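Work Package 4 report. The design task specified in the project plan requires that, given a folded chain encoded as structure tokens, an amino acid be chosen for each position. We show below one input record used in the internal validation round.
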């Protein structure tokens, strides 16, 4: 009997794991944005001494995990499992980034929802008594993502207003079975939502229905209302996806206007940074949470946060074959 299951899609943890430490690394453009002071490390350029963007992304993963463990003076041997993923084919940034760590590894692909997917699975593993220390990490890189999913940068293609800027960066969180820090109390696992959207330059519209489906189900499963939370935060819908989410949630009877935002709207300054509809990518929610949001939880500015990360389950092959973009969203409730 699933004693910890609430409703259709939510798990309530009886021994909520602690988020004891986070670390975030971002690229130069992100370092020029409004959240700059909250990131642990800002790169001076997109290559960081490497010859390719893919090698750079793997290095970012490696150093970000190292920084997170270093904050707590925890060694590789102390970690039971590591959950990680990224946007590159077969999650190579994650696997190459951790290949020297000798940590039991579970590679994930939830596209831009991967960070929260890792936190949810890590919380389940700890609450189930199968681990004491778990790392959840993810990354993205603007240049490698554009090259894989849209057009090589050398072509200089004009980006439409609906497009978003993939965040260059990585975020890592250390989850522990005991200690001090914000607790992950619930996880709501999303379903695949397909609205038939095929435009890879309008990811907010493709992913917003999945966010709405998961947020709605979280409230139904838990019996909570939006005002329970100080902040409801989606991962990387950008300005277009954020507006769609507000409207669709209102149509389902939930008004989010007073306490809802999106990481893709927070990480860049839309007026000065030419990011069109905002930020996106695995690194968007990961760096925003591990930098800004975790700081606000520690300061108790926020005490209850519902973090819902969205992902577009697509590949270069499905895009070339004119398949629709599948959306997914996972949420965790984080409380001080």
């Amino acid at each position: 009997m699933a004693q910890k299951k609430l409703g259709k899609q939510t798990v309530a943890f009886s021994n909520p794991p602690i988020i004891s430490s986070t670390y975030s690394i971002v690229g130069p453009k992100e370092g020029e944005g409004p959240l700059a002071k909250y990131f642990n490390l800002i790169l001076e350029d997109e290559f960081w001494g490497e010859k390719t963007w893919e090698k750079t992304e793997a290095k970012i993963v490696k150093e970000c995990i190292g920084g997170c463990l270093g904050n707590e003076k925890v060694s590789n041997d102390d970690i039971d499992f590591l959950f990680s993923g990224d946007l590159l084919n077969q999650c190579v940034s994650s696997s190459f980034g951790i290949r020297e760590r000798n940590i039991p590894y579970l590679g994930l692909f939830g596209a831009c929802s991967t960070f929260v997917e890792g936190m949810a699975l890590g919380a389940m593993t700890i609450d189930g008594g199968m681990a004491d220390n778990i790392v959840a990490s993810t990354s993205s890189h603007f240049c490698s993502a554009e090259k894989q999913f849209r057009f090589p940068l050398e072509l200089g293609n004009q980006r439409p207003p609906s497009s978003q800027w993939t965040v260059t960066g990585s975020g890592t969180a250390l989850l522990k079975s005991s200690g001090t820090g914000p607790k992950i109390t619930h996880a709501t696992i999303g379903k695949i939502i397909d609205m038939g959207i095929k435009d890879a330059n309008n990811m907010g519209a493709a992913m917003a229905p999945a966010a709405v489906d998961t947020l709605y189900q979280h409230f139904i499963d838990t019996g909570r209302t939006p005002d329970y939370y100080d902040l409801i935060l989606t991962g990387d819908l950008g300005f277009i996806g954020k507006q769609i989410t507000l409207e669709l949630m209102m149509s389902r009877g939930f008004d989010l206007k007073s306490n809802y935002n999106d990481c893709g709207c927070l990480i860049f300054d839309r007026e000065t940074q030419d990011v069109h509809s905002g930020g996106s990518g695995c690194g968007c929610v990961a760096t925003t949470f591990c930098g800004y949001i975790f700081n606000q939880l520690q300061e108790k500015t926020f005490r209850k946060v519902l973090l819902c990360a969205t992902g577009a389950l697509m590949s270069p092959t499905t895009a070339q074959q004119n398949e629709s973009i599948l959306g997914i969203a996972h949420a965790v409730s984080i409380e001080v």
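The mean pLDDT is 93. Validation will be extended to a larger panel in the next phase.
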